[in-house]
C-alpha cells in the first residue's frame, strides 16, 4: 500500500527513530511502512493519522478509486 | 555538539536498550542451561542421536533444568511478544508458522522414508530440530525477503 509517511516525516524534520518513538513502534517498522513492505494495523494507522492530524485516507492509498 | 534527542528518539533508544537486556537475559539463560547440562551430565547418551536410555542427570538438576527450559522456551518468548511492535510480532508469528508446518510435514515424510528404508527411525530430538531450524529459516525470510 502506498503512503505519504516519508514525506510527512520529512516535512517535520523527524528521523525514522523520532517517528518510531512517537508511534511506539520500532524504527524498522517505520522503515517497512515507508517502503510499503508492511501495512500497518488499523490501530496503528489511526495513531499515525492522529499524530499528523490527518485522515487515514489522506496518508494511505490502497490504489482503489472512490 | 550533537543534536538534542526528540521525545520519540529518546523513546526509541529506551526500546533498543530494553531489547538488548532481553537478548542478554536469553543468552545468559541459554548459556546457563548448556553449561549445567554439560557439567552435570552423568550418562553416555546423546540428544542428537535419540540415545535416550543412556541419558542421566541428578533429579534435582533435571527439575532445575526443566524449569529453566520452560522459562527459556515459553515464558521469555511470550513476554517478548508483549514487548515488540506489530511488525516484529507478525514476523515472529510467520516464523512460528514455518516451524509448525515443517513439523506437520516433516514427521510423516520422515516416517514414510524410514518405512522405505531410506533414513533412521524418527526420534523426538529430530522433530524438535526440524521445528527449530524451520523457525530459524522462516524468520529471516519474513524479515528480509517478503
Core attributes:
heterodimer, A: 66 residues, mainly alpha, 434 Repressor (Amino-terminal Domain), two-stranded antiparallel sheet, 5 helices, B: 146 residues, 4 helices
Tell me what you see in this structure:
Chain A: Residues 5-59 form the HTH cro/C1-type domain. The complex is a heterodimer of chains A (66) and B (146). With 66 residues, chain A is mostly helical. Chain A has five helices and two strands, in the order βαααααβ. The longest helix of chain A is centred in the last third of the chain and has 10 residues, at 42-51. Chain B has 146 residues and is mostly helical. Chain B folds into two domains: 1-83, no CATH class; 85-146. In chain B, α1 (7-40) runs antiparallel to α2 (59-83) and α3 (86-115) packs across α4 (124-145). The longest helix of chain B has 34 residues, at 7-40. Chain B is flat. The N and C termini of chain B lie far apart (40 Å). The A-B interface holds A 14-15, 17-29, 32-33, 37-38, 40-41, 44 and B 6-13, 15, 84-88, 90, 146.
What is the CATH top level name of chain A? Mainly Alpha
How many structural domains can be distinguished in the coordinates of chain B? 2
Query: Regions of chain B with pLDDT < 50 over 5+ consecutive residues?
Result: none
Instruction: Estimate the strand proportion of chain B.
Output: under 5%
- Mean pLDDT across residues of chain B: 90
Proportion in β-strands of chain A = 5-15%
Distance from first to last alpha carbon of chain B: 40 Å
N- to C-terminal separation of chain A? 16 Å
Sketch the major β-sheet of chain A: 2 strands, antiparallel
Radius of gyration of chain B: 20 Å
Strand order of the largest sheet of chain A: 1-2
Structural class of chain A comes to: mainly alpha
Number of helices of chain B: 4
Individual helix count of chain A: 5
Shape of chain A: globular
- Give the SSE order of chain A as H and E letters: EHHHHHE
**For the residues shown, what is the average pLDDT of chain A?**
93
GO molecular function (chain A): DNA binding
Protein name (chain A): Cro/Cl family transcriptional regulator
InterPro entries (chain A): Cro/C1-type_HTH, Lambda_DNA-bd_dom_sf
Organism (chain A): Erythrobacter litoralis
